[in-house]
Amino acid sequence: MDEFEKVEKLRQRANVTYEEAKKAIEEANGDLLDAMILLEAQGKTVSGEQSTRSTAYDEQRDYVSVADTVDRSRRINDRPLGEKIKHLLHLIWIKCRDNKFVVEHEGDRIIQVPLWVLVLTLIFAFWAVGVVLIVGLFLNCRYSIEGIDDATAINGVLDKAGNAVEKVKDEFDKL
After folding, report:
1. d(CA 75, CA 69)
2. Cβ-count burial 109-136 (b if 16+ within 10 Å, e if not)
3. 109 forms bridges with which residues in the sheet?
4. Which residues touch 145 (CB under 8 Å, ≥6 apart)?
5. Closest CA to 39 of 60, 20, 58
6. Quick one: how far is CA 137 from the chain centroid?
7. Is the C-alpha dihedral spanning 66, 67, 68, 73 positive or negative?
8. Which residues contact 95 (CB under 8 A, 6 or more apart)?
9. What dihedral angle (degrees, nearest 10) is formed by the CA atoms of 100, 105, 110, 111?
10. Tens digit of each residue's pLDDT (9 = 90 or more) over 22-80
11. What are the residue boundaries of the structural domains of the chain, listed by start?
12. β-bridge pairing 141-147 and 99-105
């Protein structure tokens, strides 16, 4: 365990500042237990409630059976290629069904379609749809993905594309 991990662990256990935890570990020559004892002797720790731990299965709320996980992994990996592709397409279908592609123009929503419609149009008419999407950016349209899944990363990329087009338009106006 490196020094940062020790400091973080001590901060969590002793409820002290980063500087106090670092100083205690340095004084204890890197020994986490000695640092905790040192902080207790200085009265800097907050005594927590006494708790008990058990390795018994019945008392573990978040218990995940390793055997079940390995069996599930083997079942997935032992599938024939056709079943793996079918499973992947099913997952893609669920994502595309439950999320929507949204086009906004200056804050007003003008188009909202299921994501699968966009995917199919991109597959069958990539160049036409690509040109329409790029021209839309130059006409102050903004795109986003909405739905039950977290699309923050994708929406960040779409926002960056819109901002890049805005910069190009600004540079063009300066000429």
Report:
1. 10
2. eeeeeebbebeeeeeeeeeeeeeebeeb
3. 104
4. 99, 100, 101, 102, 115, 151, 154, 155, 158
5. 20
6. 27
7. positive
8. 115, 149
9. -30
10. 888 888 888 888 888 888 888 777 655 555 555 655 555 666 667 777 777 666 667 78
11. 3-41, 92-174
12. antiparallel
Tell me the pLDDT band of 17, cut-offs 50, 70 and 90.
confident
Tokens of residue 118, six digits: 């966009």
Choose among 17, 24, 22: nearest CA to 2. Answer: 22
Cβ atoms within 10 Å, residue 28: 18
Backbone angles phi, psi at 42, to 5 degrees: -85, -5
pLDDT tens-digit readout, 74-99 = 666 677 888 888 888 888 888 888 89
Please choose, from the candidates 98, 92, 104, the residue with its C-alpha nearest in 3D space to the C-alpha of residue 159: 104
Residue with tokens 């907050």: 46
Tokens of 171: 């540079």
Token pair in block for residue 124? 């069958």
pLDDT band at 110 (very low <50, low <70, confident <90, very high): very high
DSSP summary character for residue 3: H
70 or 173, which is more confident?
173
End-to-end CA distance of the chain: 58
Q: How many Å apart are CA 37 and CA 81, to the nearest integer?
A: 57
